[in-house]
Amino acid sequence: MQTHRVTGGNGVQLYVEETGNPHGRPILFIHGFSQCRLAWRKQMTSDLAQDFRLVAMDIRGHGLSEKPYDAYEEAQHWADDVEAVIMELDLQPPVLSGWSYGGIIICDYLQAYGEDSIAGIHLVGAVTRLGSEAAMAVIGSDFRALVPGFFSYDVEESVSTLQKFLRLCVHAEPTPEDAAFFLGYNVIVPPHVRQGLFARTRSHDQLLPRLRKPVLITHGQEDRIVLPSAAEQHAAAITHAQLSLYPQVGHAPFWEAPDRFNRELRAFVEAL
Question: What is 2-270's CATH number?
C-alpha cells in the first residue's frame, strides 16, 4: 500500500492510498458522508488489485485529510480535489467510483472539468442533489431524524447518533468487529465538517443527461439512507447507464455483497 499527500482545492491537504497493478486501469474510490477510505477495504484488498490500480482518497474533512473550517461549500473546491488526485498520481484515465455523497463530488468534478480525462463513472448508493425538497425526497426518514445529532459536540449524543447512522448503512446486523471498525473512522470526523457538507445546496439534474462516458449505477434495494428511487431517477436521466440493484442489501453494497460488487465493477472496467 502506497500513501500520498495531495494538495487539493484552496490548499486543503488530502490523504490518498493506492494499491494494485500500477499498469492497470485506475479506479478512484470516493467515499461518502462521515466515512473514509477504509470503507473500501473489501475492494482494496480483493483480487481487483491483480489487474487494476486501486486508489482511495479521504475527502476533505475526513479520515487523515485536513479538516479546516469553512471549506466545504464551494463546488469548485470539491472538483479541484478530484482533479488534484488525478493529476498528482497521473491516473490515465480513471474510473470514478463514488458512494453516497461521493456522487455529488463526482458530479462537481464533471461540471468543472468535463469527462475527457476519465474512462467511466460508477455511482454507488449515490446522491446528485443537495439542500432541496427534491434532494430530500430520496433520503430515508430514519436518516433525516438523525441530522441534529450529527452536529452535536456532546460526545455521548454524537456517538449515539453515529451508531444509529452506521446501523442504517447495512441491511444485516453487522458483526461487533465491523461495527467498531465503522465507528472508529466516523468519530474522527468533526461535527463542523458534517455541518459543512449538509449546508450545501446543489443540483446536477442538467448534467446527468449530458453524460456520454459509460456509467454503472449500483444500489441496495433495502437502502434506508438513499432510497432506491434515487438510482431509478439516475437511470432515467442517464439513458445509457447500467443499473444494478442488490436484494437484501442496504446502503453499502460494496461491504455487504463484495463478491458481486467486485465482479460487476471488474466487468464494467474491463469493457471500457
Answer: 3.40.50.1820
